[in-house]
Each structure stands twice: as structure tokens, then as C-alpha cells.
Design goal:
By secondary structure, the chain is an alpha+beta fold. It is built from 3 helices and 5 strands; from the N terminus they run αβαββββα. It starts with a helix and ends with a helix.
């Protein structure tokens, strides 16, 4: 009963979730670098697919190179954990009008071991997870801004 009442109240106030499965017309401009390609693909997936350059909204993203920081050391002085951080700045435009700009960062720790293959796999997984986090953060801000813009 409570769930039904909540649903009716939300329907009455024209509540619409930001991620309601709508195919938002956002063109994500190419982002340089391998990580940039992955971030662009992730953002396009968040926005419902790839759109043309003449889309209603254009998102440009500048992705910095990842930075690494040692987090933990073994007794011998070898690094055991590292943290990777990715920083991005972005701008959302509608035509020539800038709707918003901002910056986001995401980070994740990973195991740094002596075995090269295991270390590389751990690093690559951390980068992939960080790109996904960054994509989520940027898309939430962008979709919220578009929702506000279209409800004016």
C-alpha cells in the first residue's frame, strides 16, 4: 500500500528519473589518448549511443594523463600498493551557448607486485574502473543540467 501511494505521489509531481532510458541527443567530441577513447565510449553508452556532430548538445572533455601515487610499502621498501588518479575537465554546449563546465576526478588503488603480467593486469583493471567512475560522475552532472535546461 505504501509503495502504491509513493508511486502515485511521484507520478502526480511529474517526477522523472535522470536515467530513465531516454536517448539524449549529446555528441561527445573525441577525447585524445587510449584512456580518452575508453572514456568517450563509456560516456556514449551513458547517453544512449553515438550521436552526430550536429546534435542538440555537445560535450567536450579534456582528460589528463593518469597520475600514480605509492600507497603502501613492504618491509624491504618495495611498493605494494599504488593509487591511480584520472582528472578531466568538461564543457557542455547547446549551439554556441555554454550550459556548464566543470571538472571531475576519480581514483582507485591497485596491487603492485613483482610479477610484470600481474602488475599490468592490476593496473589496467584500476584504469578501467577509474574511467567508469569518471564517466558516471560526468554523465550525472551533464544529464542533470540538460534536465534543468529543458524544464525551463
Amino acid at each position: 500500500m505504501k509503495k502504491l501511494l509513493l508511486c502515485l505521489m511521484l507520478a502526480a509531481c511529474s517526477f522523472q528519473p535522470v536515467f530513465s532510458g531516454n536517448n539524449t541527443d549529446i555528441y561527445v567530441a573525441p577525447i585524445s589518448g587510449v584512456n580518452g577513447i575508453e572514456l568517450r565510449n563509456s560516456l556514449n553508452a551513458e547517453f544512449g549511443g553515438i550521436h552526430e556532430q550536429n546534435a542538440k548538445y555537445v560535450l567536450t572533455v579534456d582528460l589528463k594523463e593518469p597520475s600514480k601515487k605509492y600507497k603502501a610499502f613492504e618491509r624491504a621498501g618495495d611498493a605494494a600498493w599504488q593509487e591511480i588518479t584520472l582528472n578531466a575537465t568538461y564543457t557542455l554546449k547547446s549551439g554556441k551557448k555554454t550550459l556548464m563546465s566543470g571538472s571531475e576526478s576519480a581514483s582507485e588503488s591497485y596491487t603492485f607486485v613483482r610479477y610484470l603480467v600481474a602488475s599490468n593486469a592490476s593496473y589496467n583493471n584500476a584504469v578501467a574502473n577509474t574511467i567508469h567512475q569518471l564517466s558516471d560522475k560526468i554523465s550525472i552532472h551533464v544529464l542533470t543540467e540538460i534536465q534543468k535546461n529543458e524544464n525551463k
